[in-house]
Amino acid sequence: MSPLVIGRSCFGLAALATTGAWLVGCHPEQSREGIVVLVDSVPDSLDARLTLTTVGQRVAQLISPGLITFDDEGQPVGDLAREYRMLDSRTLELTLREHLTFHDGSPLTSEDVKATFEGLISRAVPSPRADKLEAIEWVEAPEPLTVRIHLKRPYAPMLSELSIGILPRSRALPPDAAKQDREPIGAGPFRFAGQPDEEHLLLLPFESYYLGKPRIRKLLIRTVRDQTTLVLELLKGRADLVVGAVSPSLFPALLADGRIRILSRPGSAYAYLGLNLRSGPLADERVRRAICHATDVEPLLQAKLHGVAEPATGMLPRWHWAYAKTNGCRWDAARAVQLLQEAGYAGPQAGADPSSAPLAIRPRLRLTLKTSTDRFRKSIALVFREQLAAVGIDLEIRSLEAGTFFNDVRKGNFELFGLVFSQVLEPDLLRWVFSSSNIPGPENAFGGLNRMGYRNERLDEVLDRATRVDRDERKQLYAQAQALIDADLPCIPLWHESSAAVLSARLQEYEPSPHGYLQPLAAAREAAP
Amino acid sequence: MRRLAGTPLAIAGSLLLVSLFLDLVPGDPVELMLGEQAPSIDRQALRHAVGLDRPWYAQLWLFLEQLATGQLRSSLPPFQRKVLPQVWAALPNTLLLTFAAIVVAVLIAIPLGVAAASRKGSAVDHGAMAVAVAGVALPRFWLGPMLIILFAIKLDWLPVSGAESARHLVLPAITLGTALAAFLSRVTRASMLDTLREEYVTVSRAKGLSPWAVLWKHAFRNALLPIITVLGLELGALLGGAIVTEKVFAWPGMGTLLLSGIEKRDYNLVRAVVLVFTLCYVAINALTDVAYTAVDPRVRHR
């Protein structure tokens, strides 16, 4: 029986009551205390080191934050660390905040930080994030508030990896490391108070949080898988916050209610069309550019995304510290037709005015777009089909079940695919996505993210160099990289989806994070009943 | 007894089929779990840790081994949580929901069917059967949200979803029970019409018994056998319907568990849930037999 719950009266189903022990409790409904956050899947783990899902990461972060977090420009800034500096290209020094305390009352010192990282690097904990810490040679704790991280080689993206949750040293190694999965401890604003069943997670405000005890009295994180039910719970007034799990197409229905607010901040989730550069018509840059000119995202942003997205010119969002303006390609159907003709796809209606041309009976080019079975993504793909038809390209839409879809995308079995990167913060992601060393293949167990099969030696060099230099030089190098990618157009940038938070009237002073974090709950307030 | 002998065969068959299908489903569980954000992880090591690199029959054998020793764990790295506690936590919820749905179905179907049969061809009959056709035709994923909108939001009588109190049970039970109620009322009507034609009914009428007593004591008791048969057969379908209903109402039962297992490609969890579903089905069939003998002594003396 969940402590937050609630039934106005007991139903007289005596026969039923005997069959289920949990039916006993019946509480008065009126006094709802605390804030209910709905998520659309069960957090896979509460251990920040183990969780792989976005939901798991968001919740783990609330319980056990890391040394570093990201500001609104995507720059690493101190969280548990007060400040950081590079002593030299291979040594990073961090100073912890004073009087940090874990939920169990023990103080958080540099020894805990050292132990947390050592547990990960030694592979004593089976963390999927351990690989990203591979560049760390050793961690030093010279003073209680000072941590020095020594790297094997200059590696600038390391700073972003320090966002992993810091745990008490007892939890850094087995056997106690396993406890973190179900009964996590950290130094975050909310402490774990119980998990009555898979679907419910109860958190309580932590008195000694370094920014002060949160004003929310109770935080219930509840899983509701069905999108419709999620919205109905919001309309019923039994939920106070949903971050990122409600499809924009349902926003009008929510706003019609009057009490529900939707706050959005430009986010970094990046929607794009990946193109197969290995062979076929898309190996030709002119065809890729033609497709880019033929697609118009503006009507989609208005009609489908209801304004909660901004057009993208590349992978990094406009507000990102490493963002550089590129030429991009504006919607220009005439130019698209011209490019296709230059590339040798004359088509039966050469010379006709493309904007008034009806759907060609015999298209100049046939392509296939693979997408997931998600209804929303499918409906967007259908709009692209329409738009490409106007320039004589027949785009076939194939929506595939998630497993099959990813398999095809990874193995290069596609012409176009539509995908979304859920978060683009560390600009080194450009290297994972566009460097020729990250084309999926047997040597990297098909794990690379350069699914397009894009090769540009100059870009490889720029992106490699950007991992070894300081911030200012990185910024310049990433500007070069963005220009190179823009010139070759290995994928078509669509938009950056905003981080949208749906709030009930009961949740006040909540400033949504552009990264979709739940952290703003630490500063939010419950409206008086 | 002969029926029970088929039980191991049914279980083995369902486990084999499920394991085979899981193997045929494209998509690697490890890849699916890691998704976009973890490019550099050693996937092969993760697969090996839980035996996902072995052929499907070896994985099934591993499952049986773990099951026999009570150490059944999730086939997903790196957590490998125990599976059985999850199943034991979910099973009572599903049984409760199914039982409540049967109660709803019986409470609706029997009076409706008997009333329709006793006034055959009247407006009551046509009305009842129209309701029955509508009930069979309504899909649960549509009926569920509609009931929520009406009773939880517009009228504000009941909660939307969850499983925290008896009031949370009402809407899912109705959603799950409606189709069965519709089907059952048609069977009740047909069976009642048959018995009402029998001579002993005419005799009891001639004896001067009240119409009520004739209907319920003499006709209905004899009409019960086909009703129980259908109820037993339909229970399997009810367990299937529970999956959809549980998703709509965020009901923490076996259906929810099965869906999360499939989503995550947690093969061991899926196998365990299917195993329990099979056992339930077998148990229901056995119970149906017992119910026969209770209702009709002739079955016992056969």
Strand content of chain B: under 5%
Rg estimate of chain B, integer Å: 24 Å
Give the oligomeric state of the chains in this entry, treating copies of one chain as homo and distinct chains as hetero.
heterodimer
Q: Give the N-to-C terminal Cα separation of chain A.
A: 23 Å
Beta fraction of the residues of chain A?
15-25%
Helix content of chain B: over 70%
Largest sheet of chain B, in brief, is:
none
N→C terminal distance of chain B: 14 Å
Largest sheet of chain A: 7 strands, mixed
Number of strands of chain B: 0
Q: Specify the helix fraction band of chain A.
A: 10-25%
Q: What is the mean pLDDT of chain B?
A: 80
**What would you call the structural class of chain A?**
alpha+beta
Number of helices of chain B: 14
Question: What characteristic shape of chain A results from the CA principal axes?
Answer: globular
Low-confidence stretches of chain A: 1-30
Work out the largest interface and the residue count of each chain.
A-B, 67 and 61 residues
Layout of secondary structure:
The complex is a heterodimer of chains A (529) and B (302).
Chain A lengths: L13 H4 L17 E5 L14 H10 L4 E3 L5 E3 L2 E8 L2 E6 L13 H12 L14 E8 L2 E6 L6 H4 L28 E8 L2 E6 L13 E5 L3 H10 L4 E3 L7 H5 L5 E15 L9 H10 L3 H6 L5 E3 L21 H10 L22 E8 L2 H15 L3 E8 L1 H9 L5 E6 L7 H6 L22 H9 L5 H18 L2 E13 L3 E2 L16 E2 L3
Parallel strand pairs in A: 1-10, 14-15, 14-16
Antiparallel strand pairs in A: 2-3, 4-5, 5-7, 6-7, 8-9, 9-10, 11-17, 12-16, 12-17, 13-17, 18-19
Helix pairs in contact in A: 7-9, 13-14
Chain B lengths: L1 H4 L1 H18 L4 H6 L8 H7 L6 H13 L15 H35 L4 H15 L2 H15 L11 H31 L2 H8 L4 H38 L5 H11 L2 H29 L1 H5 L1
